[in-house]
From TrEMBL:
Stretches assigned to the EngC GTPase domain: 110-255
Native source organism of the sequence: Kitasatospora cathayae
Binding positions for GTP per the UniProt entry: 149-152, 199-207
Cofactor(s) the protein requires to work: Zn(2+)
Key word Transport present: no
Classification lineage: Bacteria, Bacillati, Actinomycetota, Actinomycetes, Kitasatosporales
InterPro entries reported in the protein's UniProt record: G_CP_dom, P-loop_NTPase, Ribosome_biogen_GTPase_RsgA, RsgA_GTPase_dom
Record flagged with keyword Metal-binding: yes
EC number, as in UniProt: 3.6.1.-
Designated name of the protein: Small ribosomal subunit biogenesis GTPase RsgA
Localization (cell): Cytoplasm
Subunit note: Monomer. Associates with 30S ribosomal subunit, binds 16S rRNA.
Co-factor binding comment: Binds 1 zinc ion per subunit.
CDD domains xref list: YjeQ_EngC (cd01854)
Length: 353
């Protein structure tokens, strides 16, 4: 299982489950109520993909549901079909807010070491979107890396790279082309362990996955199809072992990337956080306070207004989700209490507070 990211630490963690007759498996794709996972056959030791029932580990909170990259404890002899009986604690998780007005979170990938944020050089880089992806990546606990794709289509890749680097403090920005192979080896070396590729539809995520895997493992769509019908070929996430070691998870193109709270925004805007430390007042809001280093940087142009606006916008979004999650948790607790009280009354037992 080492080729799929199994480590001695996981082996130790799993020991009691192994004693209970369960097998470790890595989830490579999730469907409704079922998943595909890779495990070492207990008889032959060979790796194989098995179809598993995941309903036993289902949860009202989508965040606790199995997702690609999760390590599962599997009961091969469960009836009517082999089943996941537990998930191992995640080392990292990429969580976005689900699309729309709801405040639920959705896990895109688990146990990821590197988040490859793919953006195409063929169009003007959308810096705000890259900043948003960076916040999402930092929040996950994994290390972000920006991959600028389709280098073969432009002459000024270096200029664009410099622009992107300016909005990605502390993050490596690589220029690659799946067409010519430029930068692919460097990328491979920069992403050991488990990597996930995220980005908008059509930026070349599946093509990149194929280039890294050295084989056509993902269906690649014609760019034209995206424009005319807004169609996505990547419908299910997949986890693919790479020939030189490491594992890659390809995700479908992300239209909406709502943030799901946390410190990710501050990490993505470390330059602004650093400036804020120079403000005269510790709790400076960077509005009207004297001696504000952030406003000084805006005034002399070292901090672009666009970046400041982007920072404030993402921060506001996080605050909204934080308030909503608190409200949701409180409501869930209340409902649970009501249900318990009701069932105890029905049973004629005492109800004490
Ligand atoms: N010239 C050139 N074209 C590329 C490169 N990488 C991808 N493309 C083209 O870009 C289009 C989209 O590529 P995909 O790999 O399907 O994009 P994707 O990000 O996986 O798209 P979704 O599956 O919708 O998320 C295809 O027509 C690819 O052939 C590249 O390095 N150079
Ligand atoms: Zn200030």
């Amino acid at each position: 299982m080492a080729g799929y990211g199994w480590t001695p630490e996981l082996d130790q963690l799993f020991a009691p489950l192994a004693e209970a007759g369960l097998l470790p498996a890595r989830i490579v794709r999730v469907d409704r109520g079922q998943c595909d996972a890779v495990l070492a056959d207990p008889e032959t030791g060979e790796l194989r993909t098995v179809r598993l029932d995941t309903r036993r580990v289902g949860d009202a909170d989508m965040i606790n549901c199995p997702c690609t990259g999760d390590w599962a404890a599997v009961d091969l002899h469960a009836q009517p079909m082999a089943a996941v009986t537990a998930l191992l604690p995640r080392s990292t998780a990429i969580i976005r807010k689900v699309a729309g007005k709801r405040s639920d979170g959705q896990v895109l990938a688990a146990n990821v070491d590197t988040v490859l944020i793919a953006a195409s050089l063929a169009a003007d880089p959308d810096l705000g979107r890259i900043e948003r992806f960076l916040a999402l990546a930092w929040e996950s606990g994994a290390e972000p890396l920006v991959v600028l794709t389709k280098a073969d289509l432009v002459d000024d890749a270096e200029f664009i790279r410099a622009d992107v680097e300016a909005v990605a403090p502390g993050v490596t920005v690589l220029v690659v082309s799946a067409e010519t192979g430029e930068g692919i080896d460097v990328l491979r070396a920069c992403a050991p362990g488990t990597a996930v590729v995220i980005g908008q539809s059509g930026v070349g995520k599946s093509t990149l996955t194929n280039a890294l895997a050295g084989a056509d493992v993902m269906a690649v769509q014609q760019a034209r199809e995206v424009d005319q019908k807004g169609r996505h070929t990547t419908t299910t996430r997949e986890l693919i072992p790479l020939p030189g070691g490491g594992v890659l998870i390809d995700t479908p193109g992300l239209r909406e990337v709502g943030l799901y709270g946390g410190e990710g925004v501050d990490l993505a805007f470390a330059d602004i956080a650093e400036l804020a430390e120079e403000c005269r007042f510790h709790d400076c809001n960077h509005h009207t306070e004297p001696g504000c280093a952030v406003r000084a940087a805006l005034a002399d142009g070292t901090l672009p207004q666009r970046r400041m606006d982007s920072y404030l916008k993402l921060q506001r979004e996080n605050e909204w989700i934080a308030s909503r999650s608190d409200a949701r948790v409180a409501k869930a607790r209340l409902n649970k209490w009501k249900a318990i009280t009701k069932s105890m009354r029905a049973a004629g037992g005492p109800v004490k507070r």
